Model the fold of this input.
Amino acid sequence: MKRNNPIEWFQEWYKDAVRTEPRVPDAMQLSTVDASGMPRIRTVLMKGLDARGLVFYTNYASPKSVQLTETPRASACFHWKDLARQVIIAGPVSRVSAEESDAYFASRGRGSQIGAWASAQSQPIDSREALLAQVAAVTARFEGQQVPRPPGWGGYRIDIERWEFWQDHADRLHDRWILTRSGSGWSSQRVQP
Done:
């Protein structure tokens, strides 16, 4: 493994995570800040990673989307407990193309597609029954047809400028490597635990 190629390094660790933590190896804690600088963190799922960056999807009216509009930078952390590893990324954020969002939305299960229409993410609701009634209404609306992507739903890409790879070791003498973008490549530096 080359220490100066963070995508290859991540992909190797991710394959290990798929084997050891198969339930949600793609779960990451995403951190954003609001206009006042107040941080907020939540768990989302990575849905793509390539040389352009890391992709996740959400409702564009959600608090995370509002914060990404106000301050288009984010950090995310993957923690794979059974492997005693974590990877932290950071960089500027932008929306993916409508075509990319459409393609991913079409690959989702029908229930998830219906849910994206039925839920006004993070908005108050009186009860679970009210949510299920919204789901029933959307299900009826799209009965017998494909569910299109809602106009207020899509993806974001973190253009990763910084990676940190962390491996646990005894006596808290962990291995830590920081990789930062340097021209068209990456500079790599081991740092103390």
